[in-house]
Each structure stands twice: as C-alpha cells, then as structure tokens.
Amino acid sequence: MANCQRFSDISVSERILNSLFLLSIAIGYLFSLGQVFFTHQGRDGQPGLSIDDIAIAYHGSPEQTRLAAAINGPMAGNLKSPADKTVILDWIASGARQAIYQTQVAPILQRDCLGCHSPASGMNVPPLTHYEQVVKLTEADRGASIPSLVRVSHIHLFGIAFILFFVGKLFVLCDIPVWLKRMTIGVPFISMLTDILAWYLTRETPDFAYLLVLSGGLMGLSLSFQIGLSLYQMWMPAVWDARVQVIAGRAMSLSGKGLLKFYGRLKGMPGITLAFVSELSSHEQVQFLQTSFKRSLANAAVMVKNRLPADWRLF
Length: 315
Hints:
Blueprint: H1 12-40, H2 51-59, E1 61-65, H3 66-72, H4 82-93, H5 98-112, H6 131-136, E2 140-141, H7 146-171, H8 178-204, H9 209-266, H10 274-278, H11 282-307
Helix pairs in contact: 1-9, 2-8, 2-9, 4-5, 7-8, 7-9, 8-9, 9-11
C-alpha cells in the first residue's frame, strides 16, 4: 500500500487533464440519458418515459404497429402538427389502404420523414419512399430485431467498456477503503453486462424491462460516484490543505516565536533564542515544532517501554 499512488501525488497538470476528461464523460452521460428519453418516450401513447415504453421498445406491442409506435414515440417531434399524426394513425387503423396513402399519408411522409428514411440518406433506418415499404411497418410491432440488438450490443460493449476502464483507472487513485473501491469499480461493468443481457430478455418477456432499468440506473449511480469522488479528492483536499497551511503560518507568526523560545529554555538549549527564532520562516517553525514533538514522543515511548514489566510490553 505504501507504493500506491494517490491523487495527492499527481501534478496540477495531471489534475487538470483528468478533471476535464471526467467532466466530459459526466456531461456525455447526461446527454445519453436525454437520448434514452427522446428515443423511447411516448411509445405507450402517454407523455413521458415509463417502464411500458421500455418494454415496447424491446418487446414490441401487439396492440400497435411499428409505424404507430414510432410516431407516438421518438418520431413524434418530426411531424409538423398533431393533426398529421392523427391522419397516419387513422390510416393504419382503417387497414392501411393504398388509395388513402397516396392522397393523405404520402405527402406527410415526403415532407417530414424522407430526409432520413430514404436510401439517399445512407442512414440505417427503414425507408419510407414507397407504399410497399411503408405498409410493412403497419404490421404488429414485434420489438427490436436480433440483428439490431447485436449491432447495438457490440457498440455498447466496446465503447462503454473503454469509458468505464479509464474512469476506473482514475478512481483507483482515491483514498478510500479497499473493499469499497473494488466494489465500486466492479459494479458498473457488471451492470453494463446485465443491462445488455436485459435487452434480449425483455425482447422475449416484457417484465424484464424492470431489470433493464435497474441495471442501467445502478451503472449510472456507480459511475457518478466514481467521477464525483475523484474530482473531490483531486481538488478539495489540496485546497483545504492550503488553507490549513496559511492559517497555521499566520498562527505561528503570532505565537510560534514565543513557543519555541519557551521550548528552548525548557530543554536547556541556549541556541534556541528569540533572535534565532526570528530568522525562521513560518514553515520552518512548524517543521521544527513537529520534529521536536515527535522526538519527545519517541523518548517518552522508550521510557515507558523500559519501565513496564516484560509481559506488559506494548511496543
């Protein structure tokens, strides 16, 4: 443990670099929470994000289609007006007939959706350029497909694992109990793996959406704890120590000279005079007092040790 590096051992430049990295990760995590909200909210037809929205995103809903789930949820903001959403939902409910599509639905999709949902965009989203493509999305929503989950899984595993590794690498410099440090480092990795596993489980059984939310929340809490404590121990103790040194220096400038003079007389050291003390800086005065006090304690310990019976020795 004596050779373990702590935040107090690193330079100010390293602290600035580490702090900016941790703050960037923290801000990025907040944006990721916003991404989750805007991607999944409203899928159950109600405003806000709920467990049902999460379950529908991965398991699907036999009561609505993929197109309805999209315009009720993450794509709702892309439509110009609520009336447009009503037109599309009514068209789906009436059987998604091609004649109505051409006159009422297609103009809305061309205006608001084809910027992304077309082959020309190059985006990995369902195309909505022709009736045959759109009508496939009016079938019952079966949730996320296995290929899409596999694609997102490998991105999350590679990306988030790197983030957790570097944040944890800095967190090991914190001065906290070893058991707490080891647990805090391991929890986000376990939570990440559990979260990804919960995607596949929720796809089969919607009740596993609770496990998905729990594991994601646990990873967020542990990551926040690592970032917060790392930033605190990087800067706050240093600020506190600096204030203590300033206060101690001022106190020594007022009373240290008298204390040292008294100590010199008590020990019979004529060299410790007021003139000698006056030449010492506040920092040197503090160091001198500390050294003298430690020497006195050591002498007292030896004296007590020698006077105790052999079977009572405590040192």
